Description:
The chain is about 40% helix and about 10% strand. By secondary structure, it is of the alpha/beta class. The chain starts with a helix and ends in a 7-residue tail after the last strand. A 7-stranded parallel β-sheet has the order 3-2-1-4-5-6-7, sandwiched between helices. The longest helix has 22 residues, at about 175-195.
Amino acid sequence: MNVTARQRAVQQQVQEADKARPKEEMKGAMQAGARRYPEPPFPDQLLEKPGIESEQELAPLYDAPYWKGSGKLEGKKAIVTGGDSGIGRAVAVLFAREGADVAILHLDEEQVDADVTRAAVELEGRRGLTVAGDVSDRRFCDEAVAQVVKEFGTVDVLVNNAAFQLHVSRFEDLTEEHFDLTLKTNLYGYFHMAQACLPHMKPGSAIVNTGSVTGMFGSASIVDYSMTKGGIHAFTRALSGALLPRGIRVNAVAPGPVWTPLNPSDDKEKAKKFGEGTPMKRPAQPEELAPAYVFLASPQMSSFITGEVLPVIGGYSSA
């Protein structure tokens, strides 16, 4: 049989198989977790910036009730920026469940979210500390780390997670003030915190940065945010090389859509359909992201991994 005949035979076989077994279509959102997670449509709610989690009509799921701790971060001292809500809160809880004391850095706003996170950390039997301020301010970062070291004695893990995001309909409407606020929070904040923590870190310490799927593929209505997240990915890879001689690992998690206060405090219409464009047809909940941070922070789990960006984005196109 010549090549043409073979190709046609394969073509006929595929056509017959397609007729016999039509392509599977997913009904509703994919549910593959330990419990069922919410799916669009979400509440028609707009929060004022920066967004208070306690005010969300549909509360993000962060407590990971089926996660059993096993000492993966036993005795570690961790800092989580943006730790009062969203991904940061879920990370703080799992870090504590794995044996770490956790300092929660958050904006100087209503204390209620930070208090909830600290209480959740303490419920795991670990020490929690809240420190309010702005990571775009170098002085605050230095003073916050000094306060953590005074309380905990050292810093073993830094999770850079605080972020600012706001959609604009047209690129021309992205003002310099808006652009500057995004860069100062998302890039300068990571830079300041890493430099402030490094003098207290020793071999075996870890930095885990929060990147984004937008840093991989871009997003037309958040050009500035996408730009900073791509910069965080590059920062992660470059800093990992710089810190190799000191035995300090640097990695990043690149989340896809995650249900946090960041979303209903941005665009009410987009929030209603948030995450439905992913292959899983829903956003992640914060507790679905937190295990990736535990993995990259734990010397038991990722001692041979540095400079990596781990996407947790709900799958790739099924087309």
